[in-house]
């Protein structure tokens, strides 16, 4: 009776299983397709949100780099033009004297047979007297080798005909004697000295560059000069004019201010030129000067942020500005961009991303519907196949049940033997999984498990953990030039060098390709940095058989309490990227 009841129960269970196997694929396969499609759509939405969030950040980063490059280029432009001021002075002065001597020689040649020496001298003097430059500050003078003044500027005309050979400048230099000596020995040349100046107290002298040259007759020599400050002001004026023309072609204007606060150039607000923003008693201009001065005092360059009128929108907006001091000068150059510029670009790029995202979603939904329909057809044929297979299996199971009883006894001993073999194989696989086959360092899987454990220990016991992300510089070049065998050799030797500089409690793992993770428990970031720097030194000095020393770039971070492993690694990766961007062979913390 009991056996018959058991048999009926088995029949019912078999029927239930048959029903499940028949209709299960109709439910499972379409449901799997649907869930997979929803997962893809959700992933796409999350990716879209992250991309939109990064747009503004990336644009700010790009604009900051752009304005920095523009300012650096302008500073180089200014440095170059200031460097050639004295060269241009020499060319101008020498050209004036040479032209004056040509005129004098032409007059002497024309009248030498018809007029007396004194008459010819007077003609030459009066011909050259009107030759004035820089509002009369620069002129042609004529002296003879005894120091007698033949042609002088208007304010010194009373000295014509008298000797000034004993004249000394403010430094006690006997400049007339020096000029005569130069003309006699060399024929011509330049001299730096100090001299009186038209329109100023005759007892006061100013630095000037003079060019003198022997005329070739009458024991005369001619000269001309320019005052350094006048030449500098003139050159600066020309330079600022050229910059304003360059500035007119840019969307972001420059402004140039002196260290004392005087505005030299402001393309958007020309009315500020010549004013001293330092003298403002209050307002944003005074605050801007303070920020500029602080940067100039501490670093000579840097970024500042403030609110300022936007010439395009006519509104006060946040402005991001980069400033840099011009070397060997009291000039400070600045340019920037307004927040609305970034906002407009963000809006444009966001629209483009949104349109692309909508198109992608449309394609995903359409593809999911098609895939769902196809899955229903597949489910039908799969169900038929499974049902038929199940019926065949039922028949085979009945036949095999008897055979199984016979085999059970022998299988039991074999199972024990196989279990032992599997345990050994498991141990071998664990070892393989934890060790990188090439370098013998921890594998990526193993080092990540160690990192999880160390982070758990930090959070629980409030301990310290430093992590270094290491990347070999120009590793692809090694593989390309020397081949992959050489690349493998470099990886193996590098790990050996890294281990030599680590303690027994530290860990090293191959994170991928030529990247490695170093875990230093109970080590603050300063100590870890010292260890990394020793590593970098030993690596650069080691002979890998390459044409150049091997270097590494490192991102070094210290664990922050309750920080996720992803953020921890992301910080290290970001710092590694900075090391690469800043020239490699660096450790960035």
From TrEMBL:
The residues covered by the GGDEF domain are 463-589
Q: Please give the chief subcellular localization of this protein.
A: membrane
Q: Do you know which SMART domains this protein is assigned to?
A: Cache_2 (SM01049), GGDEF (SM00267)
Coiled-coil spans in chain = 390-428
Per the record, the domain of life is Bacteria
- Write out the catalysed reaction: 2 GTP = 3',3'-c-di-GMP + 2 diphosphate
Identify its membrane topology class.
Multi-pass membrane protein
**Molecular-function GO terms, alphabetical:** diguanylate cyclase activity
Query: Which EC number applies?
Result: 2.7.7.65
Q: Where in the cell is it found?
A: Cell membrane
One family name in Pfam for this protein: dCache_2
GO CC annotation: plasma membrane
Gene3D superfamilies, alphabetically?
3.30.70.270, PAS domain (3.30.450.20)
Keywords from the UniProt entry = Cell membrane, Coiled coil, Membrane, Transmembrane, Transmembrane helix
- Enumerate the transmembrane spans: 20-41, 361-382
What protein am I looking at? diguanylate cyclase
Organism of this sequence:
Sulfurimonas lithotrophica
